[in-house]
Amino acid sequence: MPVPRFWREQKGRYNLIGTYCKKCGKHFYPARSICPFCRRSGEIEDFQFKGKGEIVTYSVIHASSEDFDHLTPYILAIVKLDEGPCITTQIVDEPTDIKIGDRVKAVFRRLGSDGKAGIIYYGTKFVIDN
Amino acid sequence: MKIGIVSYGAYIPRYRIKVEEIAKVWNGDPSALKGGLKVFEKSVPALDEDVVTIAVEASRNAIERGNLDAKRIGAIYTGSESHPYAVKPTSTIVAEAVGATSDMTAADFEFACKAGTAAVQVCMGLVGSKMIDLGLAIGADVSQGAPNDALEYTAAAGGAAMIIGRNEDEIIAEIECTSSYTTDTPDFWRREGQPYPRHGGRFTGDPGYFKHVTNGANSLLKKLGKTAKDYDYAVFHQPNGKFPERVAKSLGFTQEQIEPGLAVTNLGNTYSGASLIGLSATLDIAEPGDRIFVTSYGSGSGSDAFSIKVTENIKKCAKDVPTVEKLLSNPIYLDYGKYAHHKGKIKF
Ligand SMILES: [Zn+2]
Fold it and tell me: In this structure, what CATH number is given to the domain that contains residue B139?
């Protein structure tokens, strides 16, 4: 990922900052600048998610692209945040310890890096918090 | 004016390797090693953990425990000898991740194992001179020992964060006084670009650790007109379990005084994190009125000593933030192969 793009999005990735429509009360992550429900009459504001949610579904990844190969086997899951939106994220627990419906909370981890000399990308993953 | 700790937080990765498992690979004698080092297992970072992620987790725990507004933090200093970048601060990433940016200052510190307590002293100065409202001082490391080096049995990962302030309604532990003892001593070093440190073997003990901790501790006790008996607890830098026990005894402290802060046995040496994790573990169980004596040590060499008095405000700390005991519970054990992979000792 290009450095400028990551930098623009890093506040959102570090602290789960998305948006919220004051008109209809819906939350969005990643951030949306226009409410898809209220369209032009929506009122969008930044919103920091609490970082708690639950596992909707998950899959254990055994074969991955080169960038994530060193992490295998790892859990990739869809987490429904308590405020509403669903996100795809890594769960940093052992694959044997997870089940659908588990409560999870946000943690700060390395997301990747541009090789050995490039920038390191940090952001949010989740851990089981039953 | 009083200056003190208004909140604190620790973080320890969940993975562990037992001393036996490392000894098995190198034909070491596990019972001799365990008896000699008084370390039974050590923490290992996950593949996506480093000093930045550990510093962020410890700092978030500190902010949550004190229910503090991160925007009040005017300075962040992270002490470590394993910052992920040679050039680019850890502390700016921490600042963004805890929501303290942008009207603030930040820098990284390095002084072997005592960079975290050096950060505490700098925050005390800035808070005391009213240049800032709150200061965040962090000690964190993911230290490396070369395969089959003595350090491999103890070099661990973890960190702790202290938030320093001057508001008497917020101070949970007043820092009554601090003093340091510093000399140029080549007991342990790592050159730029080298993956593993070098050390002076037995030279690290007497002219390094023992001389500096003893002199630093004694000069603070003398300054305050106090003795070991005036304290309820004591925390010393813990590169292994044996050094802090020996130095405590020679200074007149008992095993009971150091026991709550002796996290090293099931954690290993967290370098810049070690004395601050020991202090966190002691604050976890301390009561108002308790006095805590802390002396860190950093090779190179120096020690920072602190006299700390716990206040009534400690009862106001959030209860659901993990204690050091909680962070040490429920570990995942690794075999040497997985451990080597975690620490990047095997290149695929
Ligand atoms: Zn809307």
Answer: 3.40.47.10
Q: Count how many domains chain B has.
A: 2
Tens of pLDDT, residue by residue over B171-213, are: 999 999 999 999 999 888 888 888 888 887 666 778 899 999 9
Write the CATH number for A97: 2.40.50
Q: What is the ipTM of this complex?
A: 0.95
Tell me: the pLDDT tens digits for B77-136?
A: 999 999 999 999 999 999 999 999 999 999 999 999 999 999 999 999 999 999 999 999
Closest partner CB to B48 (pick from A11, A15, A110): A110
Whether residues B52 and A122 touch (CB distance < 8 A) is answered with yes
A15: chain B residues, CB-CB within 8 Å: 97, 99
Please report where in the chains the tokens 């990433």 appear, as a residue: B93
pTM metric for this prediction: 0.96
Which residues neighbour B158 within 8 Å (Cβ) at sequence distance 6 or greater?
B10, B11, B12, B13, B43, B54, B140, B141, B267, B270, B273, B277, B327
- CB–CB contact A70 B60 (8 Å): no
Q: In Å, how far is A14's CA from the nearest CA of chain B?
A: 5
Peptide bond into A73 cis (omega under 30): yes
Q: Which residues of A touch B341 (CB under 8 A)?
A: 70
Catalytic residues of B, which ones?
Answer: 81, 113, 237
Whether the ω angle into residue B301 lies within 30 degrees of 0, i.e. cis, is: yes
DSSP B187: S
